[in-house]
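Quick one: sequence plus flavin-adenine dinucleotide SMILES, need structure tokens.
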Amino acid sequence: MADHHIVLVGGGHTHVQVLRDFGDRPEPGARLTLVTDRVMTPYSGMLPGHVAGAYSRAEMHIDLEGLARRCGVALCRGSAVGIDRTRRELLLADGGRLAYDTLSLNLGITPDLSGIAGADRFAIAVKPISGLLDQLDRLFAGEAVPRRILMVGGGPAGVEMALALRTRFQALAPQAAQPWIAIAAGDAVTPSLNPGMQQRVRAALARRDVTLLAPCRIAEINAEGALDTTGQRIPADAVIVSTAARAPTWLATTGLRQAADGSVLTADTLATTTDGAIFAVGDCAAIEGDRREKAGVFAVRQGPPLIANLRRRVRAEPLVSYRAQRDYLAILATGDGSAIAGRGRWLAVEGRWVWRWKDWLDRSFMARFAAGPPR
Ligand SMILES: Cc1cc2nc3c(=O)[nH]c(=O)nc-3n(C[C@H](O)[C@H](O)[C@H](O)COP(=O)(O)OP(=O)(O)OC[C@H]3O[C@@H](n4cnc5c(N)ncnc54)[C@H](O)[C@@H]3O)c2cc1C
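Reply:
Sure thing.
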């Protein structure tokens, strides 16, 4: 009899693997519900490729409804806004409550616009990705090609997006004057990447005519463009923000311990340090004492250990620790059929074969979650 209710909140990169695994190998005594505020969840690895025109919108999204049906998981369409930890109930925006035995949070993060005046009114934020895609659609459908586009944030996501926008505008209006595209990169571009990758990133930006502004910190965004912290005006028709991000603000009301960026603190078992019945994974979580940047690759890697520990909770067995590798393979598409890859402190390679490799990795990942016939 299925009496242990696992409630998964958010259809992020980790939870889609839980659905798939419990679909393939149902856990006796467990039933699962996925709570999600959207039915189509984007895969960020393919986002720049979609913006550049390499992938359709369907190709870069996982159909959570189809996947849940195929895996025998109940789907609850709604937005979580709180947790009643005493009664073990998830609180939903529509006033509903959902009782759980085990809860898992895979909610992602959104750019923290609070440090830039006017950003909430005038900027396009890269997350949530659905909002970004709607606003980019309007930009691409405009009668005239925008003259100036400013990307705020020089991390890998900002760089890939700027390069993808260059490709898209070249394809949309090959005869028209191309927009000035610039990145306001804070102190330096892609500081988290190794020196060889950074050098290749700077060369790709120059080759693709994307202006790098660094050091450059944006203090204000308005209808005319942006203003940096020295008071310099940067006129722009569109300002896209891809800067430091925060976990959803409602998590502060749950009483779960949080890191400075609002991420929920967990042990290396992925269970929160506050409440053993609640797990947190992906960008919205941080393993205590383990400072690492936010990247989808970590959310993907947490799939197998989360699956193992959810099964152990159901069986009332002790949880196992997850030893996260610090290094990971980073691959950046340059939008011109090539890509830069690197790992650790020294490895940095580039070429069309790297792009084909990334394309194969991303398509293989997505193929695992295609909606098929119900089990
Ligand atoms: C342009 C861009 C390119 C990137 N490229 C890469 C890359 O190539 N490689 C890489 O490793 N990382 C990349 N990243 C980073 C990557 O996007 C994140 O690290 C990754 O998405 C985090 O995955 P996640 O599973 O934690 O959350 P997400 O993928 O953000 O999923 C969270 C889900 O939870 C849902 N949700 C949120 N709140 C609620 C709620 N209250 N109730 C119900 N549902 C909710 C959301 O709708 C969403 O479906 C990129 C980011 C950007 C912006």
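DSSP finds ten helices and 25 strands in the chain. The chain has two domains: 4-37+78-109+247-325, 111-243.
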